[in-house]
Design brief:
single chain; 81% helix; elongated
């Protein structure tokens, strides 16, 4: 059995490489462009932008966690405890963002349903216009929900990687 000890930043980096590869392949199939084009609320764009920002923030925390004091003296243990507290408090911002990606997705669902039912349910309109209006609103509802879920999960995995590092007792 091979024992590979990767540092926290390397794990974060590899996870983001996988996510970016997935985003690249999704865009080659036109999925990202379709989401951006069909989301009338633009909440999916907000979720994607926040993912990039918060993910970079978590990457910085992972980098700093690898630079924590490794000495085993009373002074260094106190310093390490303060560093862990600092990183844990900052990681809470990441958890807040990851949890609220779901909330933003649900907000987009509500906005999409409002768009779907806004003016398209008038009985005097032709059926094709009613269906077109419903389709636009439901696209918004669907795409924002999917973005909220898809971008929340890798962010939570990044934060778990950091959490495991901060909770580990051995170096």
């Amino acid at each position: 059995m091979i024992n590979v000890n990767m540092n926290t930043f390397t794990k974060w980096f590899l996870l983001n490489a996988v996510v970016l590869t997935g985003v690249f392949f999704a865009e080659t199939k036109g999925a990202i462009s379709m989401i951006v084009k069909n989301d009338l609320s633009h909440i999916s764009i907000l979720i994607m932008a926040l993912y990039v920002i918060v993910s970079a923030f978590v990457g910085r925390l992972c980098y700093l966690s690898d630079k924590m004091s490794k000495e085993d003296t009373p002074e260094s243990r106190l310093k390490k405890k303060k560093e862990e507290e600092y990183l844990t408090k900052r990681a809470d911002l990441g958890w807040f963002a990851a949890e609220h990606f779901f909330s933003l997705g649900l907000l987009g669902t509500i906005v999409g349903l409002v768009f779907a039912t806004q003016g398209s349910l008038d009985s005097s309109l032709p059926t094709s216009e009613i269906v077109g209006g419903l389709k636009e609103g439901l696209n918004t509802a669907f795409y924002t929900t999917v973005c909220g879920i898809i971008f929340s999960l890798p962010l939570q995995i990044q934060l778990m990687i950091l959490k495991f590092k901060l909770e580990s007792k051995e170096e």
